[in-house]
Structure formats: C-alpha cells, structure tokens
Design goal:
The chain has 341 residues and is mainly α. The protein has a domain of 175 residues. Helix content is 71%, strand content 0%. It has twelve helices and no strands. The relative contact order is 0.15.
Length: 341
C-alpha cells in the first residue's frame, strides 16, 4: 500500500501541537485562559482525531483485502487498549507516591485503581483518554466501511454517521457520560467521521482541490482565526466547529505543501508519533511538576524542556527499542505492550 508523506506530516503536526499544549504548566498565570492556547486548542485534538479517521479510511480504500470486523477489533484492542491499560497500571503507584507534588492526588485503594481504567479523569496518565475515544470511534466507523461495497453507499452511511455525530456535538447529550471516555466520543466523533469521509473521497474529490495554492492556505487561516474570534464574542458551538474545520484544512494545506516542495524538516519524526503520544506525558510531568520542586527555574525553561523533551525523548526511546529488537526479548515485550509490532 502506498502511503503518502502528507499523511505522516498531518500526524507530526498534530502531535507537535498536542505536546505544545501540555508544556505550559509553569506559565505565570493560567495558560488555558490565553488566546494562544485557546486558538490552537480549537484545532489540535480535532486535527488529531480527523487524522485518525482519515488514515483509517485511506488505508481501507488502498488495500485490496480487508480484515474481518473481529480481526479488526482484536488488532485495535492490542494497538490502543493494551497501551492504555499497561501505562496506567504501571504509573498508578508512582502517581500515588507523588500525589503531594501533583496537581491532584490519587488514593492507594482498590476502587481508585479500578476507576483509573474506567473514568478518564481518574487515569494516572490523563491524556490516554484519546486511546479509549479512538477505539470507540473505530468500532463505530469500520463496520460501515466493511459492509458497504459501493462507494456512493459508503459515503451515504458515513454521512449519516457524520449527521449523528453533529447532533451529539451540538447537543452535548453525551457530555456527562465520563465512563470509558464516552463524553469525548460525543465531542470528537464528528471529526473522526469527517476524516473518514475525506479519506474515502480523497482520490475522487479531495485530491482535486488546489491545497498548495497560497490563496487556499490564507483562506483557511482567515477562516480558522475568524470563526475563533467570532466565537469568543458570541459563544456558538457551530462557529467553534467551523474554526476547527478551517484549522484542519489549514494543516492539510501545509502538509501537502511540504510534500510538494520536498521539505523534509518533519521526516525525522515520521513513524514515531504514536510513541511520542504515549510517552510525552512522563517527560512533561518530569520537566515541569517534578523538576520545579527540586530546581526552580523560569517558566520558559520548564516549557522548553517539556516541549522539546516531550517530543525527542520518546523518539530516542522508539529508536532504541527498535534497534536490534530481534535480538532482545525485553525490547519486543515493551514494544508489544505499547502497541507496536
């Protein structure tokens, strides 16, 4: 199967923004209230989710044969849920011991241990909710693609899914169901479904859009920022949604420009984005909350260490584990637990 570089670039840009948003713990004030954070927040997780749906559909369309639903579920459970359970189980006891310096405490009880797997707000590695959310979105989307042989029927049923997800997004009907990240599914399924439609339609329609034309990029930037600031003045979930979509379109334009002009600045991170996602939390916490208590430094030093380290420490770990892994059983075991073959 041919894998286009722009897909890897979308993933790299997405993970850079994710780690960026997690690297301002020591900001003088509440960074979540700043315009810089909120304008990127409006697109970073939607972009990450859109890319997951897009990749699922694009790979499905590119393969001559497909896994059965049972095989697909088993594969995605290994890929997404095994790392979720492994990382939170391993991190539970250290998080209990570090409760005094963490933002929130975790009790050393059986119920607390069980809850960390059921409720994402109780998870020691809080950001792993994305793994649960992605798993559910894939379980919902894959049967549609598998059951519809004709393209127009597949698009029709994916559009039905998109419409249903728009309802859950705008109504917030799932917001209170925090078990197994259902609330996050209600918010982000719309972007996963949109990504699946674009991945399915790419060769017939999406690829014909002149994404690399500067006017497209500028228009997307204006749409992204314009809808965001209109939303600031008049809170409106539809404007927030459009701001996210324009931000995603902007990133697609940038990714295709990088591919077209053979700009390889992001190539060294391609293939490591999943490991960055899984392990960056540990670097973020170590370089901000833990280091802050032993070596106080200006906030920007902690932020730089967190952002750069959060990206490149997992990359180094990924390369170390894959180097001669066939000769080391422990490397293969760790990669397996982290959802890597």
């Amino acid at each position: 199967m041919e894998r286009q570089k722009y897909i890897s670039y979308l993933k790299v840009i997405g993970i850079i923004l994710v780690v960026f948003g997690h690297s301002f713990h020591e900001w003088n004030g509440v960074f979540e209230d700043t315009v810089l954070y909120r304008i990127f927040m409006v697109m970073r997780m939607p972009l990450f989710t859109f890319t997951s749906g897009y990749t699922l559909a694009y790979c499905f369309m590119s393969r001559p044969t497909h896994r059965s639903y049972r095989e697909f579920v088993i594969n995605k459970a290994w890929r997404l849920l095994l790392p979720f359970f492994a990382l939170n189980a391993v991190t539970f006891f250290p998080r209990v011991m570090l409760s005094d310096i963490a933002d929130d405490s975790i009790e050393l009880t059986l119920s607390s241990f069980i809850n960390c797997f059921l409720y994402y707000r109780s998870a020691p590695v809080l950001f792993t909710w994305f793994l649960q959310m992605s798993f559910i979105c894939m379980l919902i989307t894959y049967p549609i693609m598998l059951a519809t042989k004709q393209l127009h029927k597949r698009i029709l049923w994916l559009s039905v899914l998109l419409t249903a997800s728009l309802f859950t997004y705008s109504s917030g009907c799932l917001n209170e169901i925090i078990i197994f990240s259902i609330s996050q599914v209600g918010t982000l399924l719309v972007f996963f479904a949109l990504g699946a439609i674009c991945g399915t339609f790419y060769k017939d329609f999406i690829s014909k859009i002149p994404w690399t034309h500067p006017a497209i990029l500028i228009g997307c930037i204006i749409g992204w920022m314009g809808c965001f600031f209109l939303n600031e003045t008049h809170p409106d979930t539809i404007l927030y949604l459009f701001s996210s979509i324009f931000g995603i379109m902007m990133t697609i334009s940038i990714a295709l420009m990088l591919e077209k002009h053979k700009i390889t600045i992001l190539d060294h991170l391609s293939g490591s984005t999943y490991m960055i996602f899984l392990l960056s939390w540990y670097v973020n916490v170590a370089s901000q909350q833990v280091l802050h208590h032993f070596l106080p430094m200006p906030w920007w030093v902690h932020t730089t260490l967190s952002w750069v380290g959060g990206i490149y420490v997992p990359v180094l770990v990924h390369r170390f584990l894959n180097h001669h892994k066939e000769h080391h059983a422990y490397k293969r075991a760790i990669l397996f637990l982290l959802g890597h073959k």
